[in-house]
């Protein structure tokens, strides 16, 4: 590929993506940035909400990413936790879910930089 073509692709945002499957799985972020990930099957679990509230307070610069389709009506509870703690949040409504996962993540708390936490699930 010609260097000028590659530069033009990147300027238009149509260049190659780094780890697209990983970004799909973790709601648009990379695994190394994930602080906590809550699966769709865990969305109504009170322990999930409590754990998330604790992690939000411990990580005030983290961004809460909510997939509204996966979280269903419970997304409002998680949104309120982010607002109450003062964390930034993102709502996804057209997220492309990884087809390789039977129980995808509905909620992801992500740092701006790599944190490399080994156990990100409940």
UniProtKB/TrEMBL annotation:
Residues 1-22 are annotated as: Disordered. InterPro entries: DUF1694, Ribosomal_eL30-like_sf. This is YueI family protein. It comes from Fructobacillus broussonetiae.
């Amino acid at each position: 590929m010609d260097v000028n073509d590659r530069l033009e692709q990147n300027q238009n945002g149509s260049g190659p993506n780094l780890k697209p499957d990983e970004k799909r799985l973790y709601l648009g972020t990379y695994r190394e940035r994930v602080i906590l990930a809550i699966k769709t099957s865990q969305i109504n679990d009170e322990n999930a909400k409590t754990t998330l509230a604790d992690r939000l307070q411990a990580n005030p610069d983290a961004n809460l990413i909510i997939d509204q389709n996966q979280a269903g009506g419970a997304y409002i509870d998680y949104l309120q936790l982010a607002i109450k703690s003062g964390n930034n949040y993102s709502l996804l409504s057209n997220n492309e879910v990884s087809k390789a996962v039977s129980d995808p993540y509905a909620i992801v708390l992500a740092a701006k930089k790599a944190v490399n936490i080994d156990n990100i699930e409940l």
